[in-house]
Amino acid sequence: MLVGCPSDPVQLSVSCSSPRSTCDTACVDLQSNALNCGACGRECASAESCVMGACRVSCSAGQTACGTTCVDLQSNARNCGDCANHVRRARDA
User: Fold this and answer.
1) Cβ(32)–Cβ(51) below 8 Å
2) Percent of the chain's residues with pLDDT above 70
3) Which of 20, 30, 37, 71 is the most buried (most CB within 10 A)?
């Protein structure tokens, strides 16, 4: 054991300054940390980022998140101009 280290790991404590919070033994920003999004241990899915404490789909430029999918609102027939705005074809009208 190293000199100066506690013999009991439970004795380790972390003090974080705002806006960071303590999750286990790390200081994290719960508003932007994808592994601790909004709360310690709440992980975002691989296609999501943590934005203001909530997991949200991360879309590239020109794409918009409609539910859990990124779409181009200029060319997507099921999301034309807005999410869930379906374009009716002439035979559907």
Assistant:
1) yes
2) 81
3) 37
